[in-house]
Specification:
The chain is of the alpha/beta class. It is built from 13 helices and 20 strands. It is globular and about 65 Å long. The structure holds guanosine-5'-diphosphate (GDP), 6-O-phosphoryl inosine monophosphate and magnesium ion (MG).
Length: 436
Amino acid sequence: MAVTCVIGVQWGDEGKGKVVDLLARRSDFVVRFQGGGNAGHTVVVGREKYVLHLIPSGVLHPGVRCVIGNGVVVDPAQFFQEIADLRARGIAIDGGNLHVSERAHLVLPYHKLQDRLAESSRSREKLGTTGRGIGPCYMDKAARVGLRVADLLNPPRFADRLRANVEEKNKLFTAVYGGEALDAAAVLAEYEGHRERMRPFVCDTARLLQEASEAGKELLLEGAQGTLLDVDFGTYPFVTSSHSDAGGVAAGCGLPARRVDRVVGVLKAYTTRVGSGPCPTELKDAQGVDLREKGEEYGATTGRPRRCGWFDLVACRYSVRLNDVDVLAVTKLDVLDHLETLRVAVAYEVRGERTDHFPADVDALEEARPVYRDFAGWRRPIGGIRRRVDLPAAARAYLDFLEESLETPIQLVSVGSERDQTIVEGLPWISGSSGA
Ligand code: GDP
Ligand code: IMO
Ligand code: MG
């Protein structure tokens, strides 16, 4: 029994939802430890497609307990909407299989408004946020004026702090942004309406997880976003506001860092990014459009077209090392089926110098020109293949190269969005779908 952490290696949307759903089959708990409703994790089961934002991607498995850890920022309206949508599709959810940390911060209407106003007032360096209030909510958490789930359950305290916060925010909205003030009474009434509905889900999730781990339960920690969007190690300032790498686990769910037994890094067979910021291998031509269309690369949360490009080994090496990834899961290999040639950036040229270093200076990264190595394509559909050995030689050569270059074994290859379109080799605890 072990604690497994699933992390996105690139800029998000690597297919974490699919991988978590597969691994969840053998898990007792699936835990989100950072991010919030900015995430969009897709799980396809037959003809059914589920897009999860706040609720962990283990929820489709009866018997799995899902946990929203203290590091997550929770928008109650979105939380209940997601529960209602899942219930309407026959998924059972109640306080027995979904737990929310009493220490999780609440996203409030002023966070969403601030997110939008800040974004529209930036003349340069717009971040292209998801508009879910994520940045402002984490700002308030760090500024020690945030409201937590525990506060919601404490009516006098909540009313008092909420009124004070709305008053402060209104100064910003009116005096700085020249916008409208929010009505504190209306916000309060809305959140008071959430209180009793929230109560059955709330507990000390850190203790729950510590005890589960001590009792030998199988725990799966589900990262949201990706390492290159991490607030410290990502392409700052074009990042999200939480720790979306494996370093976020202990602070985000209360399991001691030493308890994590293995890290699964999920990466796409090519690169995508949604929102602003550097992306050295982005293809701004017809090739990029082709990848977007073949990969159906549109944001699962905002529907925005994702920027697409070739696989970036410099960026992925940086991420794999940072997370100490044990096992790689490569997704969307099938999207490359039709290509005659595919390319991998093996180094960057930055200001005339060749380097394999992923620069912290966002301008240097913006200027980085990828140095490519070309690979032959396989030019036949692979979506029906279930063993690595049966893949076309060119596809195997591509995977072998990634595996060797990242010095990490690839134990899962995804060749389609459905659960069974997966080649699993070496991940014994999810046997069943691979035929391997
Ligand atoms: P996440 O945020 O990391 O969970 O990823 P998203 O759900 O935002 O984006 C991944 C998209 O790719 C979803 O639409 C998945 O259904 C889809 N997907 C996942 N794996 C594969 C795959 O191997 N092949 C194809 N064609 N689509 C996949
Ligand atoms: P999943 O979990 C891809 C991006 C936004 C924007 C930046 C900051 O589905 O992989 P934010 O709203 O977080 O303040 O936006 O981060 N972003 C994501 N990109 N996948 C995600 O989540 C993302 N969550 C945030 O597009 O560039
Ligand atoms: Mg996503």
